[in-house]
Amino acid sequence: MQDAISAIHRNDSRRALATLVRLLGDFDLAEEALQDAFIAASEQWPRDGLPNNPSAWLVSTGRFKTIDRLRRRARFDSLLGELVTTLDENVPDPGDMSDLELADDRLRLIFICCHPALSPDAQVALTLREVCGLTTEEIAHAFLTSPSTIAQRIVRAKTKIRDAQIPYEVPTGRGLAERLEVVNQVVYLVFNEGYTASMGPDLIRVDMSEEAIYLGRLLVDLLPDPETRGLLALMLLHDSRREQRTSESGDFVLLPDQDRSKWNRDRIDEGLSHVQEALSSGVLGPYMLQAAIAAAHAVAPSAESTDWDRIAELYDHLVDLDQSPVVALNRAAAVAMRDGPEVGLALIDEILATGDLDEYHLAHSAKADLLRRLGKTSEARASYQRALDLAQQEPERRFLSRRLAETEDTTPR
Amino acid sequence: MKYLCLVYVEEAKFDAMTQAEIETIEDESLANDRELEAAGHLIMAQALESVKTATTVRMRNGKLSTTDGPFAETKEQLGGFVFIDAKDLNEAIRIASRIPLARVGTIEVRPAMDLLRKVEERPPR
Question: Strands B55-60 and B63-68: what pairing?
Fold first, then answer.
């Protein structure tokens, strides 16, 4: 029974919280109510058995406990009395609520946590706390900061939600797309935190990529938007090769050198089906295009058999939607694979000529790779050196140093 | 002639005050409003919630940008104000984004504080 209760704690508590926030109109009251409900559950369930619908039971019990508690306090405060009356009279029994209404509550919770009037830091912290149910300690650990910093961020966000009256609602109409963009950004930020930080095993750290994928699945479930589906696919496909990205010594392993038999097949299969479904919507978006590119790599049995025609074509669409020079750089690398290093080099030189990527080490290392393939060793060395001067992270520096040394070895004497 | 008197204050000073000191300022402010009203000088007086509740709204190329926090540029100056009634922050942001100057300038959206209600709802001592 205790196991059953902790499983419900994990799976149903966030669902119940989402509804309690709406019913009680306050995050802290809702958290308290949920806690009270679990205390009651640990007494009643072992005696009476599990309820049919645990999250509805939790909502209902939490609400009654809150009314009781407020009523006791209301003896000293007439205004609380008013709140108790409205709570008591105007609230339908949660057991009667449809799945659709409950799903809407979950969406409301996500949209309020990712509200654009909150800072991006606060959006991430609040989402992980309220939607994923992580503790402030776990969030602090993942973001390499102190629990008090995270706690403060969350308190400040909740104060703003209350005092500026950010509504608990799912946006509609034109606003929905804009707001969903922010939600997607938050999810992707969480994912990248886990993805880039995955240096060696760290048992204490909560896996942020896992949390992001959970959020992605939840969103696709509640609101099947093609771009959100594209984002989920992108995360799954990236995650499928997470383990193979670094060697045991912590060095980067590039895509062509990775052991494809060790990519996570389940992740790939789930990712591929989402890419297909997202693309079939007929509307292209940046996440789904990136996912389609990742998919093209995922289905290639070997690096040599990669379909560069398709990848270059997908990048053509992506640069139409996203004018960032980094996307243009990635496209140049794909075109180089399709049409040869000379064509790619011309594109990279064009991008570098704008000056936007002058300080970006990957632009210089991409140029160096192409120069090396063309046998222009001394120019390649100069570009690798420039990349090495700009690179900050240790594994990247080691990688570039190694490339620099290899390039020296092939110099004709 | 009408004049707008803008009130600037370092919020940290409030944090350093005792509850009694804050209540004195609140009472004096309301009393001042009443005096001005009786003398026919008052058009409107309005306290604002903490700057921590501020949201900054801009429209650029038809795209809405919403960020947390107050307006921080020093090279733009206050050019006017529009005092609105909206059901929540989402509606306030929508209305703010349609102010024509949101396309060139910046609109800081700040919730009003109901000082009178705050004073009336003080817990009994």
Answer: antiparallel
Out of A79, A119, A160, name the one closest to residue B53 (CB).
A160
With b for 16 or more beta-carbon neighbours within 10 A and e for fewer, the A321-353 pattern comes to: eeeebebbbbbbbbbbebeebeebbebbeebbe
Q: How far apart are CA A223 and CA A221, in angstroms?
A: 6
Query: Terminus-to-terminus CA distance in chain A, angstroms?
Result: 76
A127 close to A110: Cβ distance less than 8 angstroms: yes
Residues of B in contact with A156 (CB under 8 A): 52
Radius of gyration from C-alpha coordinates of chain A: 26
pLDDT digits (tens, 9 = 90+) for B66-115: 999 998 777 888 888 999 999 999 999 999 999 999 998 999 999 999 88
Contact A338, A327 (CB under 8 A): no
Helix axes A99-113, A2-24, angle to 10 degrees: 70
Cα separation, A412 vs B74, in Å, equals: 60
The answer to whether the Cβ–Cβ distance between B111 and A171 falls below 8 Å is no
**Contact call for B66 and A156, based on CB within 8 A:** no
Here the tokens at position A88 are: 């008591």
Of A119, A163, A169, the CB nearest to B69: A119
Digit-coded pLDDT (tens) for A121-163: 999 999 999 999 999 998 998 888 899 999 999 999 999 999 9
Indicate the domain borders of chain A.
1-97, 100-166+173-238
ipTM of the modeled complex: 0.84
Interface test with A, best of B11, B49, B53, B71 (most A CBs within 10 A): B53
Residue A300 tokens, joined? 């290639």
Nearest to B49 among A164, A171, A178 (CB): A164
Of A164, A169, A178, the CB nearest to B55: A164
In this predicted structure, the answer to whether residue B2 has a pLDDT above a threshold of 50 is: yes
Q: Which pLDDT belongs to residue A8?
A: 80
Q: What is the pLDDT of residue A13?
A: 87
User: Which among A212, A21, A236 has a CA at the least distance from the CA of A108?
Assistant: A21
Q: Which of A401, A367, A406, A373 is nearest to A385 (CA)?
A: A401
Which residue from A23, A27, A182, A10 is spatially nearest to A94, judged by alpha carbons?
Answer: A23
The verdict on a CB contact (< 8 Å) between B89 and A166 is yes
Rounded to whole angstroms, the Cα distance separating B66 from A118 reads: 9
Residue A200 one-letter amino acid:
G
Count Cβ neighbours within 10 Å for each residue of A144-177 and write b for 16 or more, e otherwise: eeeeeebbebbebbbebbbebbbbbebbeeeeee
How far away is chain B from the Cα of A220, in angstroms, using its nearest Cα?
24
Q: Does A358 touch chain B (CB under 8 A)?
A: no
Residues of A whose CB is below 8 A from B67? 116-117, 119
Give the minimum alpha-carbon distance from B55 to chain A in angstroms, rounded to a whole number: 6
Tokens of B98: 């349609």
pTM over 0.90: no
